[in-house]
Amino acid sequence: MKQLLSALFAAWLLGAAAQAQDALPTQKEFPPKGGGTGRVVVLVSGQTGPGNYQLLSEGLAAQGFDVVLVDGNDFWAKGVAGGTLLRGVIERAQASSNAAPGKVGVVAASLGGATALTYATRMPQSVGAVVVQYPLTSFIKDPADFVAKIKVPVLMLAGTFDTYKGCCLIETARKLQEAARAGSAPLELVEYPGADHGFSTDDSKRREVVADSLRRTVEFLRQNLGGG
After folding, report:
1. In 41-150, alpha helices (H)
2. What gap in Å lies between CA 89 and CA 127, rounded to an integer?
3. Buried b (16+ CB within 10 A) or exposed e, 153-180
4. pLDDT for 144-179, tens place per residue?
5. Which pLDDT belongs to residue 15?
6. Spatial separation of the C-alpha atoms in residues 198 and 226, rounded to whole Å
7. 8 Å CB contact between 60 and 28
8. Ranges in the chain, pLDDT < 50
9. 18, exposed or middle or buried, with CB in 10 Å at 0-12, 13-18, 19+?
10. What CATH architecture is 26-225?
């Protein structure tokens, strides 16, 4: 009887684990170019979906990172615990045969930037660096209180002409930087004069900004994660 109960319990655990994995956002993995393993980078897309972040994913993989691209919309569905989903995404990514051991980097844009700022920056046990590009910040009402909760080094890249839906204004980014400096929080802001929203998704019109944002992202990840 005990053996039967043990077998049933083990089967239930396996089923629960499989169900939990199925509940995670769909991912597309970009293994390190050239083979081998690389430090994991979870890339959370903006509201327009993962398709617009193929270019950035390929650019990071070309620098030796094991990139996992997920849809930023999945973290803000009604009734969804975004932090729990992100932890699951990170654990799944770390289990890949292409993943080098150690903390992961989280790179996110626009709506995905809100996910990274809200959740990834408060996961120092598993996240070693966060890079947000033109992140959604309109939900932040108290910059000082928000940055006080940041436990992971953050690089924020923002365009000074970004007025898209009023979601990602440079003025808010500057307030976050000011609050971080006052409170010694590990947040750094880099501004791109004249750049608007989505500057990392199209290299035909913003090649200099695309190249520089990728360079800064890679440098920040290597500085805080190593590898790549």
Report:
1. 54-61, 82-94, 111-118, 143-148
2. 12
3. bbbbbbbeebebeebbbbebbbbbbebb
4. 999 999 999 999 999 999 999 999 999 999 999 999
5. 37
6. 27
7. no
8. 4-21
9. exposed
10. 3-Layer(aba) Sandwich (3.40)
